[in-house]
Amino acid sequence: AAMSRKRLQQLVDSLGRSAKHFNKREVECLVKLFDTLVAESSSRFAAAGFDRNMFRDTLHSAFGMTDDMIMDRVFRTFDRDNDSCISVVEWVEGLSVFLRGTLEERIKYCFEVYDLNGDGYISREEMFQMLKNSLLKQPSEEDPDEGIKDLVDIALKKMDYDHDGKLSFMDFEKAVRDENLLLEAFGPCLPDIK
């Protein structure tokens, strides 16, 4: 069920424009990779694209991601039309930001990943959920949650510029521009350097 030359060409042309960090050759490779992965999958969605599990496997094998909660959020960020399936267009456009995005694009992307309920803020609860999830528990700690609460307080102190107890996009953006390391403050949602 590989796509026709003509269809591939059209796709590469349009994605060459919308996924602006890849050249056409790279777009073509990514489309073919997508096709190959979909062909190998036994998913009933395969005709339409990646379902959550396939996407998760790909994030894990290609980019070393291990955190299920974060991978789920990355899936939702890629899945622009919320149909629970990542189409070839969503795949290439998503990877364009994921792998090569400008700082601005990556700030937007990370914020979206961390804003669990999509209300435009990263709340104290959301920070807590993500940090609790991504930090290893030390067996000796009586109440690991206390340490995480402290981290959330530190993050808010450092990043909540308008002091409303949650991070707006503007707070997050300003914090990351001042200190780039804060980009993935609440969990690893970008590929590691390799």
Automatic annotation (TrEMBL):
A molecular-function term among this protein's GO annotations: calcium ion binding
Keyword tags: Calcium, Metal-binding, Repeat
InterPro entries: EF-hand-dom_pair (IPR011992), EF_Hand_1_Ca_BS (IPR018247), EF_hand_dom (IPR002048), Recoverin (IPR028846)
Database matches in SMART domains: EFh
Domain EF-hand, chain residue ranges per copy: 66-101, 102-137, 147-182
Pfam families found in the cross-reference section: EF-hand_7
Protein name: EFCB1 protein
Lineage of origin: Eukaryota, Metazoa, Chordata, Craniata, Vertebrata
Gene this protein is translated from: Efcab1
